[in-house]
Amino acid sequence: MKLLNRFYQVSSSTLTHSFDASAYLLDTDEGLYLIDCGTPEGYAKCLANIGSLGYDPRQLKAIIGTHGHYDHLGAAALFKRDFGTQLWMHALDRVQVESGDAIKTTAAILYGSVFTPCLVDRLLTDGERLNFGNMELQILHTPGHTLGSVSISLKTSRMVVLIAADTLYGGFSPRIGSDEELWKISLDRLCGMNFDLMSFGHCSPGLVTDVATRLDCARRSFAIYYNPWFKDFAQQYTY
Ligand SMILES: [Fe+2]
Questions:
Q1: How many angstroms does the Cα of residue 170 sit away from the middle of ligand 1?
Q2: How far, in Å, is the centroid of ligand 1 from the Cα of 24?
Q3: What is the pTM of this model?
Q4: How far apart are the first and last CA of the chain?
Q5: Which CATH number fits domain 2-236: 3.40.30.10, 3.40.50.1000, 3.60.15.10, 3.30.70.100?
């Protein structure tokens, strides 16, 4: 599904498999990249989506991982096995991905599945800018959902897109390394930045407008975890 020029969504719970988080294909002047890649269950359909857009997965250079969870990076080992695709991600989620930690990757506890371990080829650091010619990706370390969670500020010639992944509306559990105080700081940081469009990990395919309002709404609802009487996020998240 085309989102912007040379920027596509190739995975989601409706595009590929119900387990899958959002994943994106970037056609840059420096080659093809994925942001996240979904699960093994959605792998074949993800490949079909890439092919239907006219791209060859053998040309993929790297998966830029937002964090070490099964629904975002469970298929990374398959991409590496089949196409030699590298995996880039933040150091603080590296161990769980390289060891296939059943709990911290959420594979066993949420999906009843196995996270195939995958070696990380490059570590992403906060503030790092990946200049791909027609696109520049700035890595924003936004811990909270997991300690190694990153958001990505994707800058094209016309606009800036926030890929927030599970830093927005992700689940909270100490078992997966969630940290409430760090998460608040991360949300404050995103609220203080300017974006034209955004996406997050579990939403309908597409990009959200009115980003400042939506980020502020997310920030203010963060403490909802303390009150079981509030409506859940899915009910609140309407436009
Ligand atoms: Fe997650």
A1: 6
A2: 16
A3: 0.93
A4: 21
A5: 3.60.15.10
